[in-house]
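step: validate -> pass
step: tokenize input -> pass
step: predict -> running
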Amino acid sequence: MTPGPASAKGSKDTGAPKSRTNSIVELIVIVLVAIGLALGIQAFIVKPYKIPSRSMEPTLEVGQRVLVDRIGMHFSEPKIGDVMVFHPPKDAEQQVCGPAPHEVTPGGAACDAPEPEEASVNFIKRVVAGPGDTLYIKEGHAYVNGKKEHDPYITPCGSSSECNFPTPIKIPAGHWFMMGDNRGESDDSRFWGPVPTKWIIGQAFLTYWPPDRIGTL
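step: predict -> pass
step: emit ->
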């Protein structure tokens, strides 16, 4: 008698449940790796940043988003004209200047030294002068080593006192003088001093939102 086909009764097909479990585990691993890579990229390579104020108009508007190159600071120093994200001095938002905290007087000299302690907040401004440069400000324009900056990107601010600091200052070694492009509406190094290199997070190099503003800086 020819034996019939083997009965499947009593047999267990465990392939499907195992396959489903493996897929779930694989998905979890992929998600965790992706999150880890994203966090690592933000911490060490490129970080997104949202523009919080009008200080960089017309170049950057409130709510616009930029990408910040964090790794470049390990290989080169900022250049005049670069747009940088950085930590300001601790009391920058109160416009306090210097190791012996005081307020600067518009119409005299801009702040030539920051408080020694940095703040936890981030600012975004443009580099207008670097270590060893001599600087004064007239009608919102920076004059560096006696020459007016090439500044087609700014909103000038005329004869108001906070736009004029005619007494020259010298930028200390390892420091960078930062100013917003909206010179009449920017809280910047004029009031709280140049920024040490170690407080700089990186250079803003690309704007990616909104779509109609996509482009390099």
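step: describe -> The chain has a mean pLDDT of 86.
step: cleanup -> pass
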